[in-house]
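Example for tutorial group B:
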């Protein structure tokens, strides 16, 4: 098989991964220019593969959770393959070959992909989250650092903009946590800060219990409120991107933020249903994203960028 055929096969598999694993991200990725879109597919395929390996899922679907011993062994294997890919070794696994191509192309520091795997370790070890900062640390490891790697794919290298990219990842993950509180609790995982949960703290069964919906929903509201300054900070990172990249990121930001709006609108009684956005709402947010990106390229470029607020960040 020729090298060209191999590369095409890797890209095809990566494209299929995002189309099956995340319709929202796949839709946003179409707005990227072809080269950035290709790299986004490659990076997503590796992230999806690692997540599925740890959770025992296929494209994010199926029962969450492996036997802890098996999960720890999987994590060791993922870390070893990630280091080997970064070292330039030949990778037989398609997901790691995809990761290798995008990581080496952009000179990605080992810290960032290994930070993502550390997030999976937090799940494998059954980490608990007492404070908002604890939850933010988890959110950084499983999503904020993905924002950093995506920013690098889009040509960003300065620390100030990478922090804005991490802020968006943090906001998206806080929204995801808020959407999936009951589903996660039924799977034995609670990411809401325990100090917000009162009597339900530290007990997934209590969090999932309908009798505690009011307290759990109150904590969910607080988490969505905590996401807002991160969403606001992330918008100022758009001015460092090309228009099409800024449009794609602004669209994803708008779609995910709308999920949080839907969670709030559904109220405590709706927490057993997974909040989602309609196709028409997604289209509206994509159109709004174009307006936000245009502003970032014009008015924002003329104005002095406000100092990033004193939000928690590991960068």
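The residue assignment follows.
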């Amino acid at each position: 098989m020729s090298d060209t055929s191999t590369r095409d096969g890797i890209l095809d598999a990566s494209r299929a991964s995002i189309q099956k694993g995340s319709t929202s991200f796949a839709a946003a990725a179409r707005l990227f220019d072809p080269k950035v879109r290709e790299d986004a597919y490659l990076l997503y395929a590796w992230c999806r593969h690692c997540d599925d390996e740890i959770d025992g899922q296929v494209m994010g679907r199926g029962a969450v959770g492996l036997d802890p011993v098996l999960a720890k062994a999987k994590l060791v294997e993922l870390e070893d393959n990630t280091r080997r890919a970064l070292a330039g070794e030949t990778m037989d696994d398609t997901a790691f070959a995809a990761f290798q191509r995008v990581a080496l192309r952009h000179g990605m520091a080992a810290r960032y992909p290994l930070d993502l795997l550390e997030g999976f370790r937090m799940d494998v070890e059954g980490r608990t989250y007492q404070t908002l900062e604890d939850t933010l640390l988890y959110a950084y490891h499983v999503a904020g650092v993905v924002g950093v790697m995506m920013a690098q794919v889009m040509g960003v290298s300065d620390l100030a903009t990478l922090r804005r990219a991490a802020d968006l990842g943090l906001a998206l993950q806080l929204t995801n946590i808020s959407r999936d509180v009951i589903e996660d609790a039924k799977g034995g995982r609670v990411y809401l800060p325990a100090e917000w949960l009162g009597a339900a703290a530290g007990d997934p069964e209590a969090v999932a219990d309908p009798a505690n919906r009011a307290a759990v929903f109150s904590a969910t509201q607080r988490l969505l409120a905590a996401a807002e300054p991160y969403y606001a900070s992330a918008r100022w990172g758009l001015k460092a991107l090309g228009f099409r990249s800024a449009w794609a990121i602004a669209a994803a930001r708008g779609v995910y933020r709308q999920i949080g709006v839907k969670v709030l609108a559904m109220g405590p009684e709706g927490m057993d249903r997974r909040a989602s956005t309609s196709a028409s709402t997604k289209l509206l947010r994509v159109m709004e994203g174009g307006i936000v990106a245009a502003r970032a390229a014009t008015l924002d470029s003329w104005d002095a960028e406000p100092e990033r607020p004193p939000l928690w960040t590991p960068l």
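Residues 155 and 209 are 46 Å apart (CA to CA). Compare this with the pattern of hydrophobic and polar residues in the output above.
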